[in-house]
Amino acid sequence: MAAGRPGDPTAGRVSFADYVNENWFPNYVLEASTRQSYRGGLDRHIVPWFGSMKMRDILPTHVREWVHALEAAGVSAANIRQQKIILSAVFATALNDS
């Protein structure tokens, strides 16, 4: 509001998991096979790491730590790239929603 944009000032207080599961995923338009792939990535790689964090508290350093953890766990570079695409879509929508 102070920046001159409308929005809910409490939106960033929701946990990542709640935002993804209650707002983003149910409303994000995807082909059926892509939806299944995204759900798998969210459940296996993304929500376990960011789920309990408040949306407003997630910083680039957290994303870098997550990528390093995926690398250390042996996740392939192609899979990490796909997970980053999903995460980016979540954050882009959250920013537009705020």
UniProtKB/TrEMBL annotation:
InterPro entries in the cross-refs: DNA_brk_join_enz, Integrase_recombinase_N, Integrase_SAM-like_N
Domain of life: Bacteria
Domain Integrase SAM-like N-terminal: 22-70
One GO MF term attached to the UniProt entry: DNA binding
UniProt keyword terms in alphabetical order: DNA-binding
Gene Ontology BP terms: DNA integration
Biological classification of the source: Bacteria, Bacillati, Actinomycetota, Actinomycetes, Jatrophihabitantales
Protein name (Swiss-Prot/TrEMBL): Phage integrase, N-terminal SAM-like domain
